[in-house]
Amino acid sequence: MSKPSPIDTEREISEGEIDDTVGLAVTKSPRTITRARRKAAARRVWKQFSKNKMGVIGLAILVFFILVAIFAPLLADKCDLSPTCHPDNPQYAPPSLQFPFGTDNLGRSVLSLTIWGTRVSLAVGVVATIMTVSIGATIGLIAGYFGGWRESALMRFTDWFLVIPFLPLAIVLATLLEPSIWTIIFVIGVTSWPSTARVIRAQVLSLKTRTYVERSRALGSSNWHLISRHILPNVGPLIYANTVLIVAVAILSETTLSFLGLGDPLSISWGTILEFAFGKGAAVSGQWWWIVPPGLAIVLVVLAFTMVGYALDDILNPKLRAR
């Protein structure tokens, strides 16, 4: 009996490996394959993001403020927000070891106010952004995919919101509604979505003519299948990048409305701290410690969201990536 040649042995091993590979591929479900691809895509995005110094610095700043918001009860006693909790505290006290950021007109620690204000400002910014992106993405998807009279009607509605200045419209809505955090969120959400709608519509117009979409449509796929399986996953990265940028706009909008006295007077946010400070003449009286901490926090958070947003936009935006 002759021995098998090395070539025959190698061929048998190769065929066995192929059979094992095919068997392994067959056992994997489509959901498992999709999950593996998404994990690989997330690793690629993080690898590119970690090389962007601007994005990493912005992310570090955001992580710091998020931790401050989460651990606010450990960093500052909530009782410090009430003027009756420490009636012996000096009013308008400059920064010291006892009060690192000084005190306000009621003897409250500005440091405690700034720490607890982080929670409200970030929460309003994130929730308002979710509302903004949901409205804008829905309108952009419907207008871009279906076209025709739907696109014309939705885009004219979007143009109407773009023509009206944001601040006057927001002031009117906030004045008509009852002052509360949810009113601020609603006002920001219904006035900030047009730009998102236009960006998503432009991308959908490009995606719906791609070969794989046309092939799926020819095979009888429904509109819902095409949107949920082909259009939305490819628009998702652009939505994520746009969302991060909108959070910065939402925080600035909340600060503006609260500074104008249209926010919730019972909630402490960075905007209400500035409103109280300017209302008591802190700017002209030289009480800078009452203004600088919340103002600096607003600048840092908005700058951080902007830095992260631009870094993600460079990675996820197809038009920028093509350059």
Structure explained in plain terms:
This protein is mainly α. It contains 15 helices and no strands. α5 packs antiparallel against α11 (223-259) and α9 packs antiparallel against α11. The chain is elongated, with a radius of gyration of 27 Å.
Judging from the principal axes of the Cα atoms, what is the shape?
elongated
Structural class, by secondary structure, is mainly alpha
Helix percent band: over 70%
Low-confidence stretches: 1-26
**Overall average residue pLDDT:** 83
Distance, first to last CA: 65 Å
Helix-strand topology string: HHHHHHHHHHHHHHH
> What's the Cα radius of gyration?
27 Å
Number of helices: 15
Count of DSSP strands: 0
Approximate strand percentage: under 5%
Q: How does the major sheet shape up? A: none
Keywords summarizing the entry:
323 residues, mainly alpha, disordered N terminus
Secondary-structure blueprint of this entry?
Blueprint: H1 6-27, H2 30-50, H3 53-70, H4 72-75, H5 110-146, H6 148-163, H7 166-176, H8 181-191, H9 194-207, H10 211-218, H11 223-259, H12 270-279, H13 282-285, H14 292-316, H15 318-322
Brief account:
It is built from 15 helices and no strands.
